[in-house]
Write a structure and sequence with these properties.
With 152 residues, this protein is of the alpha+beta class. Helices cover 36% and strands 24% of the residues.
Amino acid sequence: MLRGAFALALAVAVVGCEPPVSEADAAESEAQEAAPEYLTPAGSNPGTSLSAGVRYGGLLYMSGKLGVRGERGIEPETRAALTTMKNQIEEFGSSMDRVLKCTVFLADMAEWAAMNEVYKEFFPDNKPARAAIGVNGLAADARIEIECVAAA
């Protein structure tokens, strides 16, 4: 009888205990429960159908950027798209050296090497993970669109 009562008391004590929660775990849990923050750069068109970026859980998810303003062609469009990306990432509180992943959409995969030369200018030290995908057409007849994920 005593052994059964001891086992029951031990079971109640174990079930009633919660493991300690570290500050990092608590912060991560809080971030997961927080609502996403939809970001719009200063001076942008409020009627657009997308956010320039979304901050959520310590990450900044940037929408695709085109480089179709000004000179056309893969090099100037890559430079313009990445300049816009850089400016917005910085406006939203991060930086290009905190970019973790980029996805590059190319209208013509034959332009990959030329795009890559410009791309390397924006990531001289850190080398984010990257995918380059050939697509059949981009908005505004662009040659390139680039999206990124950065640490916030």
